[in-house]
TrEMBL record:
SUPFAM superfamilies: P-loop containing nucleoside triphosphate hydrolases. Signal peptide: none annotated. The keyword Transmembrane helix does not apply. Belongs to the IS21/IS1162 putative ATP-binding protein family. InterPro entries: AAA+_ATPase, DNAC/IstB-like, IstB, IstB_ATP-bd, P-loop_NTPase. Residues 244-264 are annotated as: Disordered. SMART domains: AAA (SM00382). It comes from the Bacteria. This is IstB domain protein ATP-binding protein. It comes from Ktedonobacter racemifer DSM 44963. Pfam families: IstB_IS21. Keywords: ATP-binding, Nucleotide-binding.
Length: 264
């Protein structure tokens, strides 16, 4: 029996079932104590292997995503949003927009939580088994330009097409020249109705000509991004940094932070 158990462990490792290999003796003991059937014994082994495989995949996707680890829904201040925005975001958490290759655009002033919402949605998607890539728009444009100079732009875009949800942070801060605009437009056009894009921006759509320069290109880009999309209008949300700064400078009821009273 010991030789058979060692042989079984070796075969499981050869079949690339490491969790089953490492737990087979433990589960066999449990099966003996609890009078599990052969089917129950096999089910428990397979369940542990599947759970471990899922966890390894999540960890791999998370490492590849470049997502900010701290920006999840657990650390998000929901109370700062309107009921309508909260409902929109809750619906997005299902991940259905990625399944249908729809886009999400979070629009609002700096500091309102656009990037936090985008990153938190990215974390949710990874838990559901979707691939995600988080990047600033400026960094991605430079990556595409480098690929173009090396005559491998189609290959680079094809590589990005493998990502289920591409998160472009701060598209409004990028002031592209024509060459930069062209590679960004090419990427958005390739992903149109094929893969999802999640964009954060401080520019309303009528101001996107600052990014794409040419009016016709701007219109075409906005049309592709907005079609089949969910718009998170965060214009009415107060800046988190402004709120925090005000709270830091507001004297408390106990007088902490206020000027000290003069000595008698």
């Amino acid at each position: 029996m010991p030789n058979r158990q060692e042989e079984l462990t070796a075969m499981l490792r050869e079949l690339r079932l490491p969790t089953m290999a490492s737990t087979v003796a433990q589960i066999a003991l449990k099966a003996s104590k609890e009078n599990l059937t052969h089917e129950g014994f096999l089910y428990e082994l397979a369940r542990l292997e599947c759970e471990a495989r899922t966890q390894r995949r999540i960890e791999r996707y998370l490492a590849q995503s470049k997502l900010p680890r701290e920006k999840t829904f657990r650390t998000f201040q929901w109370e700062r949003l309107s009921a309508g925005l909260r409902l929109q975001i809750e619906r997005l958490r299902s991940g259905a927009f990625v399944t249908h290759a729809h886009n999400v655009i979070a629009v609002g002033a700096p500091g309102v939580g656009k990037s936090h919402v985008a990153a938190a949605l990215g974390h949710e998607l990874i838990q559901q088994g979707h691939t995600v890539l988080w990047t600033s728009t400026a960094a991605l444009v430079q990556r595409l330009l480098a690929a173009k100079r090396e005559l491998r732009l189609p290959q680079e875009i094809a590589k990005l097409q493998q990502v289920a949800c591409l998160i472009l942070d701060d598209i409004g801060y990028v002031q592209q020249d024509r060459e930069e605009m062209e590679v960004l437009f090419t990427l958005l056009a390739e992903r149109y109705e094929q893969r999802s894009v999640l964009i954060t921006t401080n520019l309303v759509f009528s101001a996107w000509d600052r990014i794409f320069k040419d009016p016709m290109t701007t219109l075409a880009a906005v049309d592709r991004v907005v079609h089949h999309s969910v718009i998170l209008d965060m214009a009415g949300v107060e800046s988190f940094r402004a709120t925090q700064a005000r709270d830091d400078h507001t004297p408390s009821e106990t007088g902490v932070g206020a000027a000290a009273a003069p000595m008698p």
